[in-house]
Request: fold
Amino acid sequence: LTPNDALPNNFYRLLFEKTAQGVLFQDADGKITGANKAADYILGLTAEELIGRTRAELDRKAISKDGAELPVDELPTARAMKTGLPVFNFIQGIYNPRLKSNIWVTVDAIPDFSPETGALSHILTIYTNINGQRIAEEAEKASMERIRKLLGDSKRSSLALMSVVEDLKSSGKALRDSNDRLEYLVHALKSLTASKTMEQMQEAITHSARNLVHSDSAALVMLEDGLCHHVAEDSSIRLWKGGKFSMDECVSGWSISHNKTAVIRDLASDSRVLTKHYASTPIKSLVMAPIFLDRPIGAIGAYWNEVFEPSPTDIKILQTLADSAAMSIENLKLVGDLEDRVRKRTADYEAANKELESFSYSVSHDLRAPLRAIDGYVRILQEDYQEVLDAEGKRTCGKISEGARRMWQLIDDLLLFSRTGKQPLVRKMIDMTALVRQAVEEILAPIAGKDYDIEIGALEPTIGDVSLIRQVWMNLIGNAVKFSRKLEKPRIRIFSERVEGEIVYTVEDNGAGFNMEYADKLFGVFQRLHGQNEFEGTGVGLALVKRIIARHGGRIWAEGQLDQGAKFHFSVGAEAADD
Amino acid sequence: MIENDEIDTLLIEDDPADADLTMRALRKRQLINSIKVLSDGEEAVQFLLRKGPYEGVEFPSSLKLILLDLKLPKLNGFEVLQAIRNDERAKRVPVVILTSSQEDPDIQKAYALGANSYVVKPVNFDNFSKCVSDLGMYWMFLNKAPSYR
Reply:
């Protein structure tokens, strides 16, 4: 047992779905058997496109740190497969067909082995996105390259050195700045993931967008029924919140329909812009990044009140936010759908339960009322018309009464059967020996005089619902008594034994028994192996017993032979699978 | 036609078998003189409030008990009970609810509307017969009925 055992059951699944690291499962042949959302984002391929394909198909156009194309055999997954050793922190570029560019990642590839055979069973590949880091590194490398070049040209070397120093200063500042922004981006993505409602999410998106790119305002547009709906904005003045525009009259529409980021330095001179929408606003420049998953969802806009040239980083960050927003919106929608479904199911279940209750009620009353009439009128015949009825008439009355009584019993049993499935179990320690003694006494009381040889062994105690376990004994012992009553020397043995750690209780009789061929029918509702003339009964008793045992997490089975008696075995189960 | 003067029990019950078995149980032990059975709520109200076909006919002065079912056509038992309790004369008649319903809300409502007793019809015939004759015994002989002048 580790402290992690207290985690909820779905924790690992959630972790797999929600982590920002791309995760792939591959079988021993390299075939992909699982992929999460982040893998979809990093690799630019959906789970449907990934699953079933092999590593070799996937590992195309992988490049190393210095830009050289990497041979497939050099890649972490291939190496882990070949050597059986894990590979960690391998840096590579992966071509993402959706972004139509390389994404820089570190890759961990971890082989897993079958505990039985020791053979390779799975490879777990984890991709961590380091794109931002690489961009900064590349900038630094470019500066160094320039230093080397410029120093080679002696005439201009002093000037060059100065420019390099300036570059280094600004790139150092840029690095610090980009560090801050990365930190804020992480914070922003967390707030997206943490959003519980669509409103919270929308607020988180616009707030993050404005702060990430230091714009004067930001807006979230959702594609709804072919219209661009400005659902939220983060702005000191009101822009278009609540407004709906057709796809071809706004920049968000252009961005959504082209799945491209629109960068507009000067609104006044761009053909994609209908200036009338901006006439009442101070906006001069904007960036609009599409939110796209497997379909267009919407767009995020950042707006500046001065003419402004957004940097590549600004654009990238907004795109990253949009990509995360796509996933978060999708997740929230899925969770919402799921919650709706759970709510509906619960309501359905409650309604069904209520219906069942009122059904039980009407069964117990409305169905019995005519029986009271049948029985009542027959009794009137028998009491008031004794002299008029001949022997056959009296016999007929008896048969009618008997039928009514059987129906009565059937209704009782069915009600008990349906109630047994519903009421909660109350588990307590049960003295089985005492319980069985009581049951035997109660069963034998009405048939006093009959000579039953009943042997009750020392029974192991158990934990269960007393009233239900009592019902089990009543039915099993009642059956044993019933099916052995025609014998001269009916004999019943009740005992318990431990079989491989399980306590098994047995009721054994030497009565009518049954054909093992029909053993599977014993426990079905209304299933009987004897005619009413042979042995009376409704066929509910053993079905009830089975239901009670199942609710306790135990099991029941029977052995028998025709005219050689029957043995019913059951266990109660330790801590049940019930409730 | 029963003379109004003789009626001591009014049975308001729409199930003919239940009505039959109830009357038999009461008669068997000679607990009642004369019983009138009405099978819907509207007629019961007309009878007790002297309306419709009963307008101008004298109120049954020897009435000692109303046995009232809840599930009735036209007006249900509660509506009948309410109409009785709102009538200056009829409100004094002891009313026993005799029904299949053992729902708590029904029981609460019956007493709130002024029922004198609430009895659930036993499902089994023997118990039913005994229950009805016990009721007859109590309300005909032990209980002191009001007068309706």
In short: The two ends of chain A are 24 Å apart (CA to CA). Confidence is low (pLDDT under 50) at residues 575-579 of chain A. The first helix of chain A runs from residue 11 to 18. Residues 371 and 404 of chain A are 6 Å apart (CA to CA).
